Structures are given as C-alpha cells and as structure tokens.
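Hello again,

I reread your note about wanting to compare the complex against the isolated chains. To keep things tidy I'm splitting this into two emails, and this first one only covers the full assembly. Below are the input lines as submitted, including protein chains and any nucleic acid or small-molecule components. They are followed by the predicted structure of everything together. The single-chain runs will come separately.
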Amino acid sequence: MQRVRTAPPRYWLVVLVAIFFLGFPTVISSFLASEWAQALILAIAIMGLNILVGYSGQLSLGHGAFMAMGAYISAILAHRYKMDYLATIPIAAVVTGVVGFLFGIPALRLSPLYLALAASGVNVAGFKTLAFGISAFYAGTAGSLFALSTGFISADTFPVSLSIQLLVGAVVVGLASIPGPLLGAIFAYFLPIGSNQWVPSQTWLPDQITSTVKNAGPAVSYGVVLIMIMMFAPNGMVGLIRSGYTTLNRRLRGAADPKTGQMPPDPQTV
Amino acid sequence: MQEFLQLLVSGIATGAIFASLALALVLIYNAMGLVNFAQGEMAMFATFIAYTLVNRGMSFWIAFPVTMVLAFGGGVLIQRVVIRPVERAPVLTLVIITLGLATLVNGVAGFLWGYVPRSFGSPFSPDSIDLGGVFISYRDLGVIAVSGLVLLAIYLLLQHTTVGLTLRAAAHHPEASRLLGVQVSWMLALGWGLASAVGAVSGMMVAPILLLEPNMMQTIIIYAFAAAVLGGIESPLGAVVGGLLVGVTVNLAGAYIPNAGDLQLAFGLGIIILVLILKPNGLFGRAATRRV
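Full-complex prediction:
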C-alpha cells in the first residue's frame, strides 16, 4: 500500500490551542466556562461523527444513543460502583466503541459494491466497520464527560434532536475538515442560545423578526441551516472558502476560458 | 382465542397505518434511491391541516380528500424547491437534506400549532361489532377500510394507468425515459406528491389514536421503516405486507410478552436490525446485482 503523504504535524498549533484551552476557563465566568465545556463535549461527539460521515461516507442518526451509552456507563460505574470519575471515561469509551463496531457490521451487508471491492483486495468492510467503532468511541467519551460534568442523566437527555444537532455541527463548517467539528460544535451549541436570547435582545431588529425567530425555536434554525448548507455548500464553510480560494487562484493564473470567463467545474467531495 | 383475534384485528389496523407510511417511503426510495426521513413530519403537518379544516367546520370526509390533495401539492412543492436543485448531488447530501427538512417541518408545525397535544376526533363510531363473541371496534375496521382503499387506489394507479407506468419508468430508468420524451423531473415531483398524500392518510388515521402534536409521527416512522425494510425497501407490495406484519407482531408482543409495553418501539427497531442481518433485501426485495 502506498504511503499516504500528509502534511507535517503542526506541533506549535497544538501547543497554542492547549495553552488557550487551559487558560481560557480561568478568565471567564464559571457559567460561561460550563457552557463552553458543553460545547466542547459536543465537539468530541461531532469529531466522531465526522469520521463516520465525512471520511467514511456513512450516516448515523444514532450518535445521541452512543453518547447516552457512554453517559450511562460512566454514571453507573461512578454511582453504583463508586469508581473514580476519571477512570470511568476510558471504560465508557471503549465499551461504546465496541458496540459501535458491532452495529457497523450489519450496515455493510447492504451494498454488493463492497463485496466487489473486497474481492479486489481492499478491506472496505473492515475499514467501514472500524470507522463506526471509532466514531462510537468518541461519542461514548463525549457522553461520559457529559454525565460526569452535569451529574444528571435520564432517558430523555439524548433525544433524536441531539443527533440532528451533531449532524448540523458536523456539516456546517465542513465534513472531512479538521476545524470542522470544533467550530461546528460551537455553532451548533450556541445556535439555540442565539435564537432564544441573542436575537431577541437586539433592539435594532424589528419586533416581528425577533419574535418569529424566538417562537420558531432552534428546530427551524437547525433545519434551515442543514438544508441550506447541503444545497449550497455541501462542503461547509471550509468548502466554500476552499472553492473560493481555488477559484480566485485559478482566475489569477488564467484558468478561466478567455472568451466566456467560465471556470472549469470543481470536483465535489461529499 | 377471542382476545387473540381482537389483538389480531387491531394489529392489522395499526399495521395499515404503518403500511401507508411505509408505502410513502418506498415510493420515494424507488424514485430516488434514498429514504425520505421527512416523510413522517410531512404526514404530521398534513394531519394538522386536516385538524384545522375540521375545526373550521368542514366534515371529516370532505377534509380527508382535501388534505390529501394539499399534501400532494406540498410534496410536489418540496420536490421542486428543495430536492430538484440538488438532484444530481450524492445520496448522502440528499439524505441529510431530508433530515433537515424533517427538523424544519417539525419546527414549523410547533411554531404554528404549539406542542400541546390535541385530541383529534375519530370519524368512526366508538362502538364495536360482535362477531360471534369477538368484539371488533368500528374504529379498527374503519382504519383498515380507508387505508385499504387508498392503497388499492395507489396500486391501480401505478400498475394499470399510463401515468403510473410513466412514473415507474421514470423512477427505474430515468435516462431511457428521457430519451422517450418523459419529463423525468416532473415524474419525480409526482412521486413525491403521491408519497406525501399517502403519508397524510397514515397521519389522519393515527391521530385519533395518539394525540395530535408535532412529534406524533416520530415513533410511527420507525415502525414504517421496519415495515419497509421487512418488505423490501423497493417493493410497494412489501411495504404493505411488511406494515401488516409489523403491526400484528408489535401488537401481539405488547400483549403477550410481560412488561413489553415500553419495549414495543425497541421491538420495531429490533425487526429492522434482524432483517438487515438475516435477509437485507427483505421479503419481496430483489438482490440487486451490479456489474463491476
């Protein structure tokens, strides 16, 4: 197998981000800190979803369920068996990952195309199931962290709308992009707060708009965002920027057809 | 024995509701190769429209076909506005769009009518008919009759009319159909309209049983998925048979397995998983072979 060339790891960026996240909570109010913690927990789950949807091309609506699994495992271990909180996290993550892997298996039996690919030597089935497993591992971690941070979970804490929220977070900045999950999580988490609190508080907006936005609720916003993104920017914001940059680059280098000014079409990656 | 027969009949009635929504899913799957996750929400929205009409004084039996027509129009509109612009996009993109649509329709319904459950009167009498000791409710019979008629009408339309033939041709062989002058895009719109109308029937039949609220169809659609998968996602007949099987099984399981009440939904989901593991093409599906 050919060695895939990747960009050299940008260690300085990792250090910078780490310093930021270690220092950030100390300078903001503890309410905001807990809000951001929840957003970052969502980011972890979205990273998992991104692996599945963006890189592996499969869809999961059940990531809320994997989060729930991680949460319940942590909760039961911590509460009933008095296990140390931090120790429950890897256990929850691994168990959820294994279950996710098992769930991935039936998902593969649907397309005969994969049998053909397997016959030609590429273990597509294996990788796709692995993607499911890893993705679930992340979701389980997120769920576990959620349970430990909020201290209260029930069967209603992880509804289908959570899975939708995760999907919005995964696609809005860009599937198969690196900043996607983190920025997408921030967007997805703060969107309801935006529509319920921030928009209504903007006095310069006409009342009809603010009250409609407030009453329509986050579900409408999520739905609209999801549809708009997939219709006009299936590769998310990152995709728009990339294609804008590529178009600009090409125009500057003269790839446009001299008569019509038309650019050659872009390949789509979703 | 009597209890069994009663459960059987009400299972068939429930199954008819699943079958209608499952048929809607199959219609769109046949046309586009994807599952329309918004089908349940669209059905719910149509049911709210029926509710509004009945509340304004319209008789149920007039509101019923009117709602179906409006649902048809809504389906066509959605296909034209949201789906057609991205017709050639990868399936995953389209599926995510249907998810967005589901969320959007749910949100709009909540915005227009709120989330407080409302009661939707059944058009059938609450009495039961006594067939030799077995009491079968008119409501169950009514649901079976109405759903059966709608499904029969769809069957006749698809199999025995030119329009139906054109629709099926456009769905299965779009390129060849185009060459023969068929407006494939409008056929897809027609498919969406039909699916939406059939789904509306499902909603209107189930609303008297569950209370009417924006999240009403979310469990129904799970059972409809189970029915469609069980019957074979490409087979309209499979959708109907699957729906009836799921309805009866879930009803019997709920009654005969102790403490199974809350697990009924898990049962439906379990059916989906079991079918996918054991016979992914369902009862009536054909194993699709592709030349590689």
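For quick reference: Chain B touches chain A through 34 residues (CB under 8 Å).

B.
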